[in-house]
Amino acid sequence: SYGATYGDLLKDIVTLPTGIEGTWSIEDFDTLTVGNAGTRTFKAVFTPANNNYNGREVTITIEVAKATVPTPEVTHKGQIEYTGGKVASGIVSTDLYTATDIGGVVVGKHSVQLVLKDKSNYMWSSTNKSDDIAIEYVEIIKAQNRDTIPAYTAIYGQQLSDITINISSTT
Q1: Are strands 38-48 and 22-25 parallel, antiparallel or unpaired?
Q2: What is the pTM of this model?
Q3: CA distances from residue 6 to 10, 13, 39, 96 in whole angstroms, order as listed
Q4: Hey, is 161 helix, strand or coil?
């Protein structure tokens, strides 16, 4: 029994015997992949060089492991004060996985969701599993009120309605 990883070529895993009175072969040997993850079998055929030998067929069993997909890294942005703007992880979908990131806009913790497109043949490098994963990348916290009201001087007896109060806001 041989061990391989999804995507491997059969010729890189199996060495056919040489130096004998005949030839061992596997159909499409140089271009054939080991196939999907799981137990796979292939037929090797011995063709004798002369009639003094019998031909032979042998079944080769290969245990094919799932290939590993590097788990994307996200720069954790920590806590960011609410601004009303969108904060995104920067992770995008690839041929191997879908990244869903609606972006953080509201107060709270925000994650990017990662889903493998072929869970039968791939697994995440960070978990050695094919389960969907979520990577938290930011927590948006409530904004502080930064409005300022300057000090005013009023004369005794002056009505408050006669004073103009200017409030400035900084965000």
Answers
A1: antiparallel
A2: 0.76
A3: 11, 12, 11, 13
A4: helix
The CA distance from 121 to 100, in Å, is 21
Give the tens place of pLDDT for each residue, 40-59.
Answer: 999 999 999 988 889 999 99
Instruction: Please tell me the distance from the alpha carbon of residue 12 to that of residue 30, in angstroms, as a whole number.
Output: 9
> What contacts 24+ positions apart, CB below 8 Å, involve 116-122?
116/69, 120/36, 120/37, 120/66, 121/6, 121/7, 121/36, 121/37, 121/66, 121/67, 122/6, 122/66, 122/67, 122/68, 122/69, 122/96
Token code pair at residue 90 = 């920067």
For residue 50, give every residue at least 6 positions away whose Cβ sits within 8 Å of its Cβ, in sequence order, or none: 21
Q: How do beta strands 122-124 and 67-69 pair? A: parallel
Q: Could you give the maximum distance between any two Cα atoms of the chain, in Å?
A: 127
